[in-house]
Design goal:
It holds the Pfam family adh_short. Keywords: NADP, Oxidoreductase. It is a single chain. The chain is of the alpha/beta class. It is 44% helix and 15% strand. It has one domain: NAD(P)-binding Rossmann-like Domain (Rossmann fold), CATH 3.40.50.720. An eight-stranded mixed sheet has the order 3-2-1-4-5-6-7-8, sandwiched between helices. It is globular. The N and C termini lie far apart (36 Å).
Length: 236
């Protein structure tokens, strides 16, 4: 039976590479994106490589869009076993608490937390029924352990806090799944050159970042409730 995965925010960057690598591993991939034009262009590129990829329109800022996408999945793809929540946005990448504007904080939370929360709530029953896996893509910057260090290079309160909230959601979901074969965990790909950070120099390639996420998502091991990076369990 063909394995089915949904990857959000997959028309470019790490999400696109996740979709490509899953497709190359034999998965049927639903490529989730807000823009129909860019999403279909990404699908066309991957299908031209012989991969089994379809477009699923989903706007992570719209409850209506999320509910419509979830309904499509339940009705047309009931065998869904993998959800990779990759969609995200940086906010204003504020440099400090005092410089953070509420508007930018809300923008970051709307996509990075609330959108993911809404989709997870609606798909958790299906993933649980299918003994599947949910991966919430995280970041080193979500780690309170490391953010306590005032010298930490990337202290962007709006972005960091939205992803830390996502980590808290991962823990809460994992508690519900502790007696289930289904699982949920968070993965940080580490510093990766993407549009989110302006393709900053010194980061790993999108292909390398995606490989970390795909590796944990498909290794067949039990990672429920873990926060992982390339080296293993990462500090919350």
């Amino acid at each position: 039976m063909t394995k089915i995965a949904l990857v959000t925010g997959a028309n470019k960057g790490i999400g696109f590479e996740i979709a490509r690598q899953l497709g190359e591993a034999g998965w049927k991939v639903l490529l989730g994106a807000r823009s129909i034009e860019r999403g279909k262009a990404a699908v066309a590129e991957l299908t031209s490589q012989g991969l089994d990829v379809e477009f699923l329109q989903i706007d992570m800022t719209s409850l209506e869009s999320i509910e419509q996408a979830a309904g499509t999945l339940r009705n047309n793809y009931p065998g869904l076993t993998l959800l990779i929540n990759n969609a995200g946005m940086p906010g204003a990448f504020s440099s400090s608490f005092s410089n953070t504007q509420e508007e930018h904080l809300r923008e970051a939370f709307e996509v990075n937390f609330f959108g993911t929360f809404r989709l997870n709530q609606r798909l958790l029953p299906l993933i649980t029924e299918n003994d599947g896996t949910i991966v919430n893509v995280s970041t080193d910057m979500a780690s309170l352990h490391f953010m306590q260090n005032a010298e930490y290079a990337l202290n962007a309160f709006d972005y960091n806090s939205s992803k830390t909230a996502n980590n808290a959601m991962t823990v809460a979901m994992a508690i519900e799944l502790k007696n289930s074969k289904a699982q949920v965990f968070a993965v940080t790909p580490g510093f990766t050159k993407t549009d989110l950070n302006g393709n900053a120099e010194g980061g790993k390639s999108k292909e390398a970042g995606a490989a970390i996420i795909v590796g944990y998502a498909t290794d067949g091991k039990r990672h429920n409730g873990e926060f992982l990076d390339i080296n293993g369990v990462y500090a919350w």
